[in-house]
Amino acid sequence: MELTSQTLRLKSFFWTIVFGVLLSLATGLIENQPEASIIGLTYYGYPLVWRMTKTLQPTEFRFNILAIDAAFWITISFLLLIILEKSVLPKLREGFKYKEFFFPLVLFIPLGLVMDFVHEFGHALWGIAVGGRLTYMKIAYFEIYPQFSLTSTFVLGFARVEGLTTEFASGLMSLGGSLTTNIVSWLLALILLKTKFGYKTQVALKILGLFGLLDLPFYVLFPQIGLRHWIFLGGNTPEPLLGARNIGIPDPVFYITTVLTNLGLAFLYFKTLREKAWKRIKALSRSVLQH
Fold first, then answer.
1. What does the pLDDT look like over 141-173, one tens digit per residue?
2. Angle, vertex CA 259, rays to CA 254 and CA 265, nearest 5
3. Is residue 101 part of a domain?
4. pTM for this prediction
5. Which residues, at least 6 apart from 107, have a Cβ–Cβ distance to it below 8 Å?
């Protein structure tokens, strides 16, 4: 039994390394233009540039940089494995087929783009609600509006809403992206608590919900310490915080609200956290009653 468990874990580690390497190779399709660059060169790769192209010239590869990027994404993949072991896939503790672990990894990027669409749709929805009009929307390589088409440049997410005439309207539109993903995350958490789904559906909904949970705090925190919304991808300004300021919400109130709403979501999504908190509350109650 122990040997079987070790074999399954080794398979999990193997697929985690494969996933990290594939992610690093996939970033070679994502443009990452540095502030200081040579005219005519286009740069690709995250977090460091490892592929460069120039019109009518061979593509330049930096394989030593690719190795560093691969090490980074393998590390991120292992962190994801730990999170899944502790929350999304409790079956891991009892042993499972490695395919059950590979399934959420396959969904990770597509579902991330789905929640990215929800974020941009939220900007459009709240912007239109306060009198604006949507003029452009794009997700990854796909132009969503005014017409659906495939483009040659990568943008994680972008929505342009014009016609906003007040600071309040602009602020609500800016806040609306992360506000919408947060609301969707709450709805998914409540649905998962009240409804029993099959294994694959449950995992997919939890991954979507976790993206919604992380969207707001990541967008508030990371740009303030020099990173982007999703560390290396997305906006480089704390968009929800700036939006909240424009609609008149004081910073302390906004920070407290962000912490509280994400604590609530964490309790809903992480069963072990809920159970530990409930046990501590019971123990505290007994201690108070005894005294």
1. 899 999 999 987 888 899 999 999 999 999 999
2. 125
3. no
4. 0.70
5. 203, 204, 207
What is the spatial distance between Cα 172 and Cα 262, in angstroms, rounded to a whole number?
20
Strands 57-61 and 149-162: unpaired
Query: 42 - beta bridge partners?
Result: 53
Distance CA(15)–CA(135), nearest Å, equals 42
Q: Which residue matches tokens 């590390």? A: 75
Q: What is the C-alpha separation between 161 and 47, in angstroms, rounded?
A: 30
Q: Residue 143's CB: how many other CB atoms inside 10 A?
A: 16
* Range(s) of the domain holding residue 247: 106-291
Give yes or no: residues 74 and 133 share one domain.
Answer: no
Tell me the three state secondary structure of residue 151: strand
The neighbour count for residue 210, using CB atoms within 10 Å, is: 24
pLDDT band, residue 103 (cuts 50/70/90) = confident
How many CA atoms are closer than 13 Å to the CA of 152, on its beta-carbon side? 1
Bridging pattern class, strands 57-61 and 41-44: unpaired
Residue 282 lies in a domain: yes
CB of 161 closer than 8 Å to CB of 128: yes
Choosing from 77, 96, 115, the residue where a domain stops is 96
- Structural contact between residues 246 and 171, judged by C-beta atoms closer than 8 angstroms: yes
Indicate whether 92 pLDDT > 50.
no
Contact in structure between 19 and 77 (CB atoms under 8 Å): yes
Residue 245: other Cβ atoms inside 10 A: 17
> Would the pLDDT of 273 be above 80?
no
